[in-house]
Amino acid sequence: MEYIITVEDLTVSYHEKPVLWDIDLRIPAQVLMAIVGPNGAGKTTLLKSILGLIKPTAGEVSVYDQPLKQVKQRIGYVPQRTAVDWDFPTTVLDVILMGSYGKLGWIKRPGKKENILAMEALEKVSMTDFAYRQINQLSGGQQQRVFLARALVQDSDVYLMDEPFQGVDATTERAIIALLKDLRENGKTVICVHHDLQTVPDYFDWVTLLNVRKIASGSVTEVFNHENLKKTFGGRVSFLREKEREYIK
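Structure (tokenized):
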């Protein structure tokens, strides 16, 4: 099996308190992986560490057996919607075009080719009619679709997404997972911070269970079980909803 992301002995601390502790992780190519764990488990911190946005206390991360700075253009990132100022006066199309800056550089402006790619990305997320709308006029689900379209324009090999289903309606959620599965089928690797245990077996084929330490990582059929979830959530699995418990017996 080809592993494209390797995390070795990773420890991250905030104010001398470990948020991630001694993480060893290998992520294979062409999987759709969920990072699952309770609040404060370090899920977003792990994503940001892989992206090089956070400097670790110890350990290292490599992508395609190279330091991140050498392969940064092969990675797309979809942050949480709350990390963005949606009141900023700009249009949906302008946000999508920002995804092309990584390859163009910040001096060269997007041209006809980039505009065509941006409109194609908007079509894939069913947002073509919103291209010239101000982003502050969008619903939460529409904002998330815009984020995904911006990532598609990057045409990356690896996508890291921080809770892409957060705050969206059922229709948008179905559209997003269909798009993510399509990316996987086209040879991409997609890694998502995810909180809904009920949908893990249906949406993902690989999972990492995290609670400051790595509890388990592997195929959903092998590691997504009651024992590992009890370790991940500190024995509080009994507090999960009834439908969720059915999936982890």
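The beta strands are 3-14, 17-28, 32-36, 58-63, 75-78, 158-162, 189-193, 206-211, 213-219. The two ends are 29 Å apart (CA to CA).
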